[in-house]
Design brief:
Length: 193
């Protein structure tokens, strides 16, 4: 399986931060920092408030998402379409952009291109990176007039967060909430290669 090998070997994007899945609680600062991190890496593509709102909604869905699997083949296919020039000129939809952004985040996060320090190398940083990638990808496609009329930016960002959360939970062997997911994500990435 060299699909993920292809993804991990090239390409470019940015990084963002995010929440520990499960919603705000005692570690509320991590959620706030995640939204700020995502906003920082998204640049003009997204505000901290928008990311905070979407991250809160994502946290509320964590238990349901923990029981869902990830369609890795679809994620790899959409990543190639949007980040490796295999674009078929069809209008982009929020679901495929979100999946592609999550794979781009996995690639950057596991290859050290995300700009994370050890403190932010966590579930929240990975999910935030995926959301920032989706925000930027949506704006890029919208500026090219290649976004379907039904597609919404917030939906693309939420999809990226959901796929990233599923990938993270899978890398942890389920719902384990370890805060040091970098090496586990690398292990997960290697399974796709």
């Amino acid at each position: 399986m060299d699909k993920l090998q292809d993804i991990l070997s090239g390409g470019n994007a940015t990084h963002g931060g995010s929440y520990p899945a499960g919603g705000p609680r005692a570690d509320d600062d991590d959620w706030r920092g995640a939204a700020q991190q995502a906003s920082k890496h998204a640049g003009d593509s997204g505000s901290s408030d928008m990311f905070a709102t979407l991250l809160g909604a994502l946290g509320n869905k964590k238990q349901n998402l923990a029981n869902e699997d990830v369609d890795e083949d679809e994620a790899v296919r959409t990543h190639k379409k949007y980040f490796e020039g295999d674009d078929d000129d069809d209008d982009a939809d929020d679901r495929s952009m979100g999946s592609a952004a999550a794979m781009q985040a996995l690639k950057k996060f596991t290859s050290g291109q995300s700009g994370n320090d050890s403190k932010s190398s966590s579930q929240s940083a990975f999910i935030g990176l995926a959301m920032a990638e989706a925000s930027k990808l949506f704006d890029q496609k919208a500026s090219q007039g290649k976004v379907s009329q039904e597609a919404k930016k917030e939906s693309a960002i939420m999809q990226a967060g959901e796929v990233a959360l599923k990938l993270y939970l899978k890398s942890q062997g389920g719902g384990n909430q370890s805060s040091s997911g970098g090496s586990s994500l690398l292990s997960l990435a290697s399974k796709f290669m």
